[in-house]
Amino acid sequence: MNGAPRFSVLVPTRGRPDLAAACVASVLAQDHPSFELVLSDQSDDDRTFAAATAAAAGNPRLTIVRAPGRGRSRALNAGLPACRGAWIVMTDDDCEPEPGWLLALDREAARAPERAAIVGRVVPGPVEPGKADPPATLDEPEPRDWRGRVDRDLVYPNFAIPRAAFAELGRFDVRLGVGTPIPGGEDNDFGYRLLRSGYALLYRPGPTVVHRAWRSHEERLALKRAYGVGQGGFYAKHLARGDAFVAWRLARDLFRNARAAGGAAIRGNRTGARGHLAYLSGLGTGLWRMGILLARRAPAEDR
């Protein structure tokens, strides 16, 4: 492939060779003339590397970066220097793009304003017996634009941003994300920073990825708490900067989930009630853990 591609698809992974291989195959099957795939691998062994290489079957579009340390933010940051595209597109190793994903994304990128990022549709995959619905899905039928202060988190595992934006905004906060003591919140934090800097976040339902349903119900419950920990860490980071809007968001989040837990319990929905309570428990843990990191002046980025 001559010259810089239009898109660099960046996928972080760690110790999930089968999922990573399926993701690699679906990305490389895209019918788009100008893209590359960068797999940022933090695995402890060579199984993911071997599975991804086999799935690529010699396709030169694939680059595998051996990412140091642990944490999704570190993996994304390690993969960024290998990305040559005008747009960097991020998805997760348990997601598989639908055919036409990059072509649809290209159409949206071509008409997007200069300071904008694009969030595409994330639909749940089929749920097998004994498995739970996948997390982090976004399946709204109509496009939406968000600017300024928004009371929701808008970065999902189908996210495209101009490569030049990282020079202005910096990279992902390594204190946040799967694989760290605060296992989440890195996408929320980055999206919030984008909005505060004047970027628009554009949701467009055309570019679509499928989020696979591979976790058990207990794993899904544990993930719910992990999301709470991540969100608590995100809140604590911005509360420490005196952000009154984030304080309001935290209060509203606590109220919503407490009310939802009570409602689920009254209806006899024990699974739903447990999920909301797990999230609330995680919020408190995340606030505490980020508070400790802030007191210790732990850096937000590796240097």
Number of helices: 9
**How far apart are the first and last residues' alpha carbons, in Å?**
32 Å
Helix content: 40-55%
Quick one: biggest sheet?
A: 9 strands, mixed
Chain-averaged pLDDT = 95
What integer value in Å does the Rg equal? 19 Å
Strand content: 15-25%
Oligomer state equals single chain
Poorly predicted segments: none
- The SSE order reads EHEHEHEEHEEEHHEHHH
The computed structural class is alpha/beta
> What's the total number of strands?
9
The shape is globular
Explain what this protein looks like in three dimensions.
The chain is α/β, with parallel strands linked by helices. Helices cover 43% and strands 20% of the residues. Helix 7 (217-239) runs antiparallel to helix 8 (244-266) and helix 8 runs antiparallel to helix 9. The mean pLDDT is 95.
Q: How are the secondary structure elements laid out?
A:
Blueprint: E1 7-13, H1 17-28, E2 35-41, H2 47-56, E3 62-66, H3 72-79, E4 87-91, E5 95-97, H4 101-111, E6 116-127, E7 144-146, E8 158-162, H5 165-169, H6 186-196, E9 200-213, H7 217-239, H8 244-266, H9 270-295
Parallel strand pairs: 1-2, 1-4, 2-3, 6-9
Antiparallel strand pairs: 4-8, 5-9, 6-8, 7-9
Descriptive labels:
globular, 9 strands, 303 residues, alpha/beta, 43% helix, single chain, 20% strand, nine-stranded mixed beta sheet
Q: Concise description?
A:
With 303 residues, the protein is of the alpha/beta class.
